[in-house]
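Data availability (excerpt). The following record was deposited with the supplementary files.
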Amino acid sequence: MSGPMPHKRIVALTMPALLAILGLTVTLLRAPEAPPGMRPAAAAATMTVAEAIATQSGTGTVSGYVVGEPTATSTVRTSSFTGDTALALADSSTQTSTASMLYVQITADYRSAFGLLTNPTLMRTKITVTGTLTAYFSHAGLKSPTSMVKGTGTPTTSPTTGTPTPTSSSSTDAYYANALGKSGSSLKSALHTIISSGVTTLSYDGVWNALKVTDQDPSNSSNVILLYSGISRSKTLNGGDVGDWNREHVWAKSHGDFGTSNGPGTDLHHLRPEDVTINALRDNKDFDTGGTAVSGATGNYTDSDSWEPRAAVKGDVARMIFYMAVRYQGDDAFADLEVNDAVSNGTNPKMGRLSKLLTWSAADPPDSFEKNRNNVIYTSYQHNRNPFIDHPEWVSSIFG
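Predicted structure:
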């Protein structure tokens, strides 16, 4: 009976040793716990608008209510929106102080879903945006968003509905890169440089054929649409006789005395086809409301010193005038053209009436005809654009 006992004694001594070894192994394999200061940070929390305004550096996710469309440092539209490129967020849906708002840039991918011109019902709804916290319109802002979602849900890296179809201005972001986010005189200066660079000027004779393309009737390729009368007339009836159409200078060529010289005198962005008789009646008058109805051009009115165009092109006229005032600023061989709130400007390099032009631009936003015309001039003729067609919100920022 004494034989088996040593064996049992060996087992009894070995089991505690094995357990100790196993415990040591588990301890060695367990990842060491980092000191409190070195532990991985939790995901960044969503910021309030007030926090985003105070931070203005790095990347952040912000949740707030849509309260309007910023058009300048201290100007936010709450109705009659002019574009899809910017919105203002606030911590309260009833906020009216711009100091408590964050201006958010809306890039091409998000405009069809978050632009206020396209989606005015977004007003006073909550959205969550991720992007770079930096000044926009010289105001606390968020630019280059990587996510925009409705509500307070977890942001995704792209819109929840996929990549939206770009708006008409989406493809022009690169063209206007040096102007985006600016306002007032800084915006005007940047746009002047952009639309004066790489421009091809036409001869006055060359304008005839160009207008047959830029102002072609979408319903009849043999005709052009006359600006004031709205009549569709054969392209072949260009000339100087009664019943013909000729080249109307919307910025009257005597206002600055540039005539028909290459440059302002042949700039397609303000030259339009018009009936010879109607063109003569308009003459070199400034723009304003009121007067006597114009025979042969329904919806137009005139008096001794002003012309009121038909409602369908009032915005077109305004944006052409604003273009000329930005394009020609006296740093070339031509006069510095300016818009003022007067009529009877004579040969002074000014056109009015500013207050009416601002109203017209807001009431009659760019339509498909005007946008197409801008594109044709850019791609086929002058290689510059009218920025107020691509970004109507810039009108009030510069001239408002």
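Summary of structural features: The chain has a mean pLDDT of 87.
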